[in-house]
Amino acid sequence: MAVEPETDEVFRERILRVANEEDHREIRVARGVELDYLGRKYGRFRYGVPLAETKNPLRPEPGG
C-alpha cells in the first residue's frame, strides 16, 4: 500500500519544530526539493517519499 507524500505545509511544520530560529525564514519560503534539503539538515525526511528518490546534497570531502 503506497503512502501519499507529505505536503510541503505539513513537512514544513515538522521542520520548524526542531530548526534553529535563524533558519525559520528560509524554511517558511522553501518549497519542494529546497524544503527536502533543509529537512535533511535537521534529520527530517518527508513521509511517503522513498529515500532512493531523494537527491543527496553535496558533502565536503573528508578532512576538508
Please render the helix and strand layout as text:
Blueprint lengths: L7 H11 L5 H6 L2 H10 L23
Helix pairs in contact: 1-3
What does this structure look like?
This protein has 64 residues and is an all-alpha fold. Helices cover 42% and strands 0% of the residues. It has 3 helices and no strands. The longest helix is centred in the N-terminal third of the chain and has 11 residues, at 8-18. The radius of gyration is 13 Å and the shape is globular. The model has no long low-confidence stretch (mean pLDDT 83).
Note the beta-strand portion. Answer: under 5%
> What is the number of beta strands?
0
Largest sheet: none
Shape: globular
Elements, N to C (H/E): HHH
Report how far apart the termini are: 43 Å
Total helix count? 3
Note poorly predicted spans: none
Could you tell me the mean pLDDT?
83
Question: Which structural class matches the secondary elements?
Answer: mainly alpha
Instruction: Supply Rg.
Output: 13 Å
Helix content percent band: 40-55%
Task: Spell out the key features of this protein.
64 residues; 3 helices; mainly alpha
In short:
The protein is 42% helix and 0% strand. The chain is built from three helices and no strands.
